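Figure S4 source data
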Amino acid sequence: MKKSILVLGTRGIPNIPGGVESHCQSLYPILAQKYDLDITVVARKPYVPYTESEYQGVKLKALPAVTNKSLEAPLHSLLAALYAIKQGVDIVHIHAIGPGLVTPILRLFGKKVIFTHHSQNYDHQKWGKLAKFILRLGEKFAMKYASEVIVISDFMQNLMSEKYGRNDTHLIFNGVHSAQLPQQDKIAGYLAKYDLKPRDYIIAVGRFSQEKGLNVLLEAFQSSGINKKLVLVGDSDHPTEYSEKLKASAKQTAGVILTGFLSGDELSSIFSQADTFVLPSFSEGLPIALLEAMSFSLPVIASDIPANKAVHLPNECYFPCGDSQKLASMLMVSVNHSRVNYDEYLKKYDWNVIAEQTYDIFSSLSFEKR
């Protein structure tokens, strides 16, 4: 009989914006197909068009969710946990610290729980005191009660050891697919849609929330005077004062293009033809957008936060977090540089390797470890 695994903590797959969502969309089809696992990903109804569906061998189940940014993840995770208990699944794989709140409940009902720690979300500026308390509690519960814990960077592994004495965590990186470019006529069509030309623009990809630091990039672009456009790919899940102010400022700045969320061939086309990629974040887990930029061989500039530095790029790729003037000077130097070969960096971010490492953890539970 196949091992049954239920996944919670994501808005859903496929093609739903977000780092955890991209992670799940890449990982679980490989696990389902290569290792013959019975996997169900639980999604949040406001974000997906289905109640029940299937994606590349992975079952999809959408459950109701409130669209309150503080309560959405924990309340939906509670509903997903009750669903897992009712369905009698063998293993529950939880992603992110908000959903980690339900770990003790699942363990109380005899479920084996794997928890993947993606990011210290309580450091994000968008959260209020209550939300930060819930997120910290979710991290604490997950680290204390999960059967197995996965961390996605060596920085996070060391931190969890220091904070909670959890010294048995598994270091499994995020991954990136080999660059898959659409046909040239498709690329040309997508570029024309936004009045772009190859190598004629700087790109940033991310949610329009404070921790992504896109306002810092916008300020740097405004003061740099470089003869390039700036393409901001993304938006906010829920309109906020920050996101609305960012979009208003972008629309008033010459050369700035807002595309909204992109996916599939359109995202690949716009991403791959950029001159330079910038990641100005104040907080990250292990940024998939940065890995994707590297897969397209783009010159990259990133803030010097620990999560970004965990990729171990040359020092000249990093700027002091929040320093728009330093970023502006780096933009002036970086544009028009030749493509970069990141093959050696990307070897450890192979999704097939990541799937094998994750499967080994599923197997280690072996229906015995409690």
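Figure S5 source data
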Amino acid sequence: MKNELKILVDKGEMLPLMEEFYTIQGEGYHKGTAAYFIRIGGCDVGCHWCDVKESWNANLHPPTEVSKIVENAKKYSDTIVITGGEPLMWDMMPITSLLKKEGLQIHIETSGAYKLTGIWDWICLSPKKMKLPTKDVYLKANELKVIVYNKDDFRFAEEQAAQVNNNCILYMQPEWSKRDKVIPEIVDYVMKNPKWKVSLQTHKYLNIP
């Protein structure tokens, strides 16, 4: 049975579902928008400041048929956000094809470290130094969101911005535990470099998921 499940997960017909919830998008371009979030387990990028480390081990999250995930998601919102973990560790084509058949808007939040699969209306690329994005994700990203934890992240942000397409919207977002220190630095940087915008985790200020 385990082998059968693995085959279905490898095909993207089942996914390790960590959680799903209806809330307000707190970050980036679509902040303030009601959306249904589907959090997929599994990530090996390894950000030490990650606030959902429980998503890393895919084996902790039950393989769930994508048809069931979609059936539930469509009850709540026209906007679906697939996040993780790192969702691109799995083939996203089966779930996004079903979501598209329902006429839904589909967003992804990804580090871009794996091959881009699926059909997307919006790609939020949040690259990490430990495992850089693929060229395809750079070219197709709608927004670039760089998490600022220390001063070196400003250098990294510019390095990443040089690789995305010209229409990609550029965001710097403070890492939550360092926000009091880095927010003034981000504000100063964006005022000097206005191609960038500031993104905040507004859902945390609103005390919602």
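Residues 2-205 form a domain with the TIM Barrel fold (CATH 3.20.20.70). The first helix runs from residue 2 to 10.
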